[in-house]
């Protein structure tokens, strides 16, 4: 059985940097023809993060078999883990992309449209970064506590 590896911060950082370069290139090249950024992505990302935090709290109690919490189905835990890994990567790409997109606008804040886009882009980048943090918390909640019998290795006794 293949044990899933935790999400590596280097992968998330690389994805954010690549997306930041792409966002910067788009912003510099097409700034005059791009539409106004929608503000609706900010609450959407924050709601997704809040849902993942609530799921993490519930899942952690179920995995640790706390009193009153029903055991978790292994396929459900695997689905939560897949959601956490996908959300972390998506959040890193969005945070980097919107940060890169917003950076060139900081030089032109005197124009109202640029100022509005810079605020929305910055808020979107921050809410995407918050989604990454929530996804990492959910991924951590999916970890199964170590079995004391398995610390000594298979076939060995604790004595």
TrEMBL record:
Transmembrane segments: 37-56, 77-99, 119-141
InterPro entries cross-referenced by the UniProt entry: DUF3180 (IPR021517)
Organism superkingdom: Bacteria
Keyword annotations of the record: Membrane, Transmembrane, Transmembrane helix
One Pfam family of this chain: DUF3180
Protein name: Uncharacterized protein DUF3180
């Amino acid at each position: 059985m293949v044990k899933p590896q935790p999400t590596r911060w280097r992968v998330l950082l690389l994805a954010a940097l690549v997306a930041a370069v792409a966002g910067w290139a788009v912003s510099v090249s097409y700034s005059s023809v791009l539409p106004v950024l929608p503000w609706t992505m900010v609450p959407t990302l924050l709601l997704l993060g809040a849902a993942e935090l609530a799921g993490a709290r519930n899942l952690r109690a179920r995995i640790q078999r706390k009193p009153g919490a029903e055991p978790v189905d292994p396929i459900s835990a695997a689905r939560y883990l897949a959601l956490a890994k996908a959300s972390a990567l998506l959040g890193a790409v969005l945070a980097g992309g919107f940060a890169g997109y917003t950076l060139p606008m900081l030089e032109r804040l005197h124009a109202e449209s640029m100022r509005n886009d810079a605020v929305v882009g910055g808020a979107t980048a921050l809410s995407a970064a918050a989604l990454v943090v929530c996804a990492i918390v959910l991924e951590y909640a999916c970890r199964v506590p170590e079995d004391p019998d398995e610390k000594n290795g298979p076939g060995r006794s604790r004595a």
